[in-house]
Write a structure and sequence with these properties.
385 residues, alpha/beta, binds pyridoxal-5'-phosphate
């Protein structure tokens, strides 16, 4: 539990899939870049070189974290831009003859909406849904692919439910049947939580975001496998080898690298700890009447979606907030709008209306989860509906 200076009271932050608190190392790296190392990486003098070195250091850390080469990592303003670049950049590079894109039906809006925009430009978008058991199958993606397809895009961990998608299985099968199809994975909710290696995932492109891993908001990266062509969506001074023009945000990039350096060695330990925390939470809320769990038992333990059946999520969210507990209703990116993602997973009606997302970190404590469970139980009796 932390005292939040801004709100002047103790608060329990359980909305880490929306964003995380920047770690001290990230903040120090950003402050150092703003106060001491403030050159423009494109400048030819010493100050420019020092800034470039800071960017390259972060690039190396991120590359190593996914088993890539530094030359395959490009900085962006965040995963929204990385996802846009993946879909728009690949469709521009390969889409003249190949006009089909296959995505899952539960992608983040930055993939889904971009696909819809491409659809207006004449691309055929095929959205693959989970089967009746709520699970995705590689075969369904393969059946949708043909020689007209330029891209298959599938996220690693669903941001609303924590469902882990069969990315490796799907991408490997796609590559076997259609080696020319480009594969893209939005790894935002899996990065620094699950071990990710670009090659074993079978991904040609990977999107990453810093603020979900205790870095700072406004910076992300895209991995582009050597040899894959991407037409830039931001043109200008040709920074990032022309893939993403615009002066690099050295403070944010340095902070991103610092967060990766900090958390990379403990992926397995933290997964274990967060799994225990999830089990603790599920046990605590297990006895509360009309509370249902929407996340699969083999999902990422970092994201736990539940339903306060019969209560509207926003009302529950504000009830919990009155107790200093911050959670999310569905996905933070949809700002109160009900997304179709839960429906895709077979969660609808009153159950979807009452969905609450709890997203934790290894720093979350059992006591915080106990307080959440108590407040939830109280909400279930006090909220009228
Ligand atoms: N992809 C997923 C799965 C996300 O959860 C998010 C953010 O919530 C994004 C992409 C967008 O990331 P960013 O905030 O860096 O643009």
């Amino acid at each position: 539990m932390v005292r939040n200076e801004r709100y002047g009271k103790m608060s329990i932050y359980l909305d880490n899939a929306a964003t995380t608190k920047p770690c001290g190392e990230a903040v120090s790296a950003a402050v150092y870049a703003m106060t001491e190392n403030y050159g423009n990486p494109s400048s030819l003098h010493r100050a420019g070189l020092d800034a470039q070195l800071a960017v390259d250091k972060a690039r190396k850390a991120i590359a190593a974290s996914i088993g890539a080469d530094s030359s395959e990592i490009y900085f962006t303003s965040g995963a929204t831009e990385s996802n846009n670049l993946a879909l728009r950049g690949i469709s521009a590079a390969y889409g003249r003859k190949r006009r089909k894109i296959v995505i899952s039906s539960v992608e983040h809006a930055s993939v889904d909406e971009t696909a819809s925009a491409l659809e207006k430009n004449g691309f055929e978008i095929v959205r693959i849904s989970p089967r009746d058991d709520g699970r995705f199958y590689a075969d369904d993606f393969i059946s949708a692919c043909d020689e007209n397809t330029c891209l298959v895009s599938m996220m690693l961990v669903n941001n609303e439910t924590g469902y882990i998608m069969p990315v490796r299985e799907t991408f490997m099968a796609v590559k076997r049947s259609f080696p020319e199809i480009i594969t893209h994975c939005d790894c935002v909710q899996g990065y620094m939580k699950l071990p990710i290696k670009a090659a074993s995932l079978g991904a040609d492109l990977i999107s990453l975001s810093a603020h979900k891993i205790h870095g700072v908001k406004g910076v992300g990266a895209i991995y582009i496998k050597k040899g894959v062509r991407v037409i830039p969506i931001v043109t200008g001074g040709k920074q990032e080898k022309g893939i993403r023009s615009g002066t690099e945000s050295v403070p944010l990039i340095a902070a991103f690298g610092a967060a990766v350096d900090k958390f990379r060695p403990t992926i397995a330990e933290r997964y274990e700890r967060v799994s225990q925390l999830k089990a603790h939470l599920l046990e605590k809320i297990g006895g509360i009447e009309n509370v249902a769990v929407n996340s699969p038992s083999d999902g990422s333990p970092y994201v736990i979606n539940i339903s306060a059946v019969g209560k509207r999520s926003e009302i529950m969210l504000h009830f919990l907030e009155s107790k200093g507990i911050y959670v999310s209703s569905g996905s933070a990116c949809s700002k109160g709008q009900q997304s179709g993602v839960l429906g895709e997973f077979g969660i609808s009606g009153k159950r979807a209306d009452g969905a609450v997302r709890i997203s934790i970190t290894a720093q979350t404590t059992e006591e915080e989860l106990d307080e959440f469970a108590e407040a939830l139980a109280e909400g279930m009796t006090k909220i009228r509906g």
